[in-house]
TrEMBL record:
One of its GO terms (molecular function) is ubiquitin protein ligase activity. It comes from Pangasianodon hypophthalmus. Keywords: Repeat, Transferase, Ubl conjugation pathway. RCC repeats lie at residues 139-191, 192-243, 244-295, 297-352. GO terms for biological process: protein ubiquitination; ubiquitin-dependent protein catabolic process. The active site is at 962 (glycyl thioester intermediate). SUPFAM superfamilies: Hect, E3 ligase catalytic domain, RCC1/BLIP-II. The lineage of its organism: Eukaryota, Metazoa, Chordata, Craniata, Vertebrata. This is HECT domain-containing protein.
Amino acid sequence: MLCYWGEAVKPDGFGLVKADSVKFTDTGIGYFSPKSRIRDVSPGKSLVGFIRGDGNASVMRLNTREPVKSGKLKTLDQMKDKIRLISCGDVDAVLLAYGDRILSVEKSNVCRPIKELSSKTVIQVACGDQHFMALTNDGQLFTWGRNSSGQLGLGKGELSSLSPQPLKSLCGIPLAQISAGGDHSFALSLSGAVFGWGRNSAGQLGLGHTEDVYSPTCVNNLSQKKTISISCGEEHTATLSKGGAVFTFGSGRYGQLGHNTFKDELQPRVVTGLWGINVSQITCGRNHTLALVESSNTVYSFGCGEQGQLGNGQRTNQCVPLPVQLPPAANNSHTVESIIAGGNQSFVLCSSQKSDVPDQRKGIVTLGDKMIHRWVSECESKQWRTIKKEIKRVFSSPACINGSFIIKSCDGHYQTSTHVSGLDLDSVKTAFERLAEKERVLLEVEKVVEKDLLPSLGFTVAGVEALRVFLILPELLRVLKKQGHETKLTSYASAILNLDSCTRTVLENLWSELPETFLKTLVELFHTSVAAMISKVTYDYRQKIAMDTPLRKSVQVLQMLYKATCRNQREITPGDFIIYEINELFDMLYAIQKDIDEFYGGFVWYGDLNVTVAEKQHHMNTLKLLSSCPCIFTLEAKYGLLKFREPRGPFRMELRRTALLEDCFRQLRAASEQALKGWLQVVYCENFEKSDVYKRDFFHNAFKMLLDAESEMFMYNDTKTLIWFPVELSLPEERYFVLGVLCGLAFYNNSVVHMPFPLALFKKLLDIRPSLEDFAELSPIVAQSLQYLLNYSDDDADNMCMIYTIVWNNREVELDPVEPGKAVTSSNKKVFVDAYVDYVLNKSVEKAFNEFKRGFYKVCDRNVVNVFQPEELRGVMLGSEEYDWDVLKMNATYEYIFHARHPTIVSFWEVFEELSSQDKKAFLLFLTGFDRVPVLGMGQVKMTVRQLLNSTQDHLPQALTCHTILDLPVYQTKEILRTKLIEAIHHRRGFWEE
């Protein structure tokens, strides 16, 4: 039975039955039972389409100029196709045949196949007033027609199109439904994500504004609402959630939103009048809305009723949902199957028995257990050709892959967000391992993935669901361990890097939430690949060009994975990312550099110098490329990057002993950036004489003078162990700029200095925001109080009598200037603590630190500094205090007459072991130019002891700090050695020698 109401159309019954066969209720609802069952109805503005039970389609074109619309029902020439879906627009219609062929119906009622979609299997169609949409079974959405308001979704500035155009921005989103309104469009994903675009004059896109949108945009307010259906009116939209809740938005001038008001809604709002009654279907007409409650066989209507389209016998508008009084037969002996609204009309299809007609709205193809079983069990049969087509259809489509493994239990996939993938990853692993059981199937999958899927992944992502493929593919690549594996991995990496920065951040979020085994699989794939490529470029110069791009892309993705693992506490450790093959690259560089040095040193050397220099440059470029992925370097390898820099000329400073800092600051201030990046040479000038000075001695004494309390450049913390920038600057800001330059010089010249800054400084240099833990290092007592405040469990913290006014460095500071004296409470205590830390470590020292940072990076390249973690950067610059004197002795070597058992050497080590800890540090300073241990440990101090030639018992030991050489006289007794050694290590020497 077919019921209808709304704008009058002659003849009664639309020509489906004789006019006298149509009965009407008191409220004006017409109903009749045609001989041939009506399976689908689609009302447009000036035409109405019908599909009969036998698959034949008819269209009635209405004369809209007359007071009462009239027309003649005409059967369409369907070219022998049986029709299952019809969608009508303003004057055109689109048909979808059972063979999934799509036909257009023009004004002449001639059906023509849409050639551009002839090779596609279309599963859904939708028509707006003058635009059209078609969804294919491989997840592609095509649009065509008018694009006046962006309703085609092709982007701003795109013209209307007569032929279907793929909507690339939704590529990868597994769509469940499409819907078109007057001049706007919607698409719904399998996991309930809602995307809208087009005209938005009344807020019908639900985005919170009224500006037209030219590309699909996610309606965030509907996220995780479990949306299962969408219907569009002319300027309003309705959505249905799985629990039966209805949301409406857009124009409300006729009450079509059902919110008991005639106001527009710019964002989705639940229809409270339908709350709790479990709505099962919704449909929108031009300015009215219908809702079906299947359990009670009740249809509700609201909105414009001027043409009787509400079915209540009135011609007034209605802003709340009220039941439609259907004919008695519809309630007693029939069941409402579907409701349809369009234009100013409403239709209800009823059946006296349970329908045997399958759901006409098909879904995209997805990979399931039954399909995999058939592929594996029948791949050797005559069905192989069909199976190959199915493999291509599924594995060439990101949308099909993304929709294949969603969490179905407890509606888990509806929870998809920027941190939740909605994927059943166990089913991913099971499916691909099952495919791997048959080599023939796996090889075909591999071919399609490499040829079709991977190249298609360079798309703009409109929603999180499109990123699922990046979580699924690693499990597939894991089982595809065939030749050319690195090529597929490179294509996968390219697709990731083609995503915009915001989307890559979302992907990192999803990676960080992956179960341990799946994330480890992904890390191992790239780790193994990168290690292999590094080995190739290290030992085979011919691999340079072939490996350059794949290596660059793979290390960038590996660094992204490292960031993802750092977001949560994982079993995957930083050590899992280290690639020890880099050490082989450094070994090769050392060997090449040795050959070059031997050539210029005049040694006998065989080889082509040009080739050797070119090979060195190649390895240097490789190191530069790898430095974009610091996580793969050991600390030793990172330290090695400082030694292998682009060769620059020397940077020479001529200084007076009596005006060291004055001369140093003046020359650093005037030096160019290019000059500062050269190797440092320090020359002492006094009384018209010049002498070279070891740069380590220079740095040691320059920083010692800077730390003088009278310098006023720093403030000390409570324990007098750390320095920080003062709140009030008594010296010009430029001094901190030059200080930064000096620190940069020390870093670039591999010199350990004593500048006891807290870790916060090094975090700030690396653009990492310091935390309360960092503040605790600088001011442990205050930090402990702040931590106590955070841990305080009382719901009312007001009794602590704390306010937002603090005292720091003898200054009273308002942390909230807008509200002086604001009280600290349980609700704002975290904000207070964050503001306290931010003031001390950031705001109060902003000027001084910014100048320091500017000076530091005038010398240092950011890409080199960024290789280090904050703790590592501090270690490289400041060294450590982990003194292991046994390692110093173990690593010592001897020259000339000396050896480990020589009496002088035996006495030396006996004397050394008897020295105080301070004297041992003084010896380290005497030997190396710094009194702290290098960041890599005492093992980096390779001391060479040799005989001081032409020396007597009166001579003191001497040291060549740049080479860590100790020149030791042959003393007759241990006592003489002790006396001379202590005198030497405490003597003013080198640059400071009187």
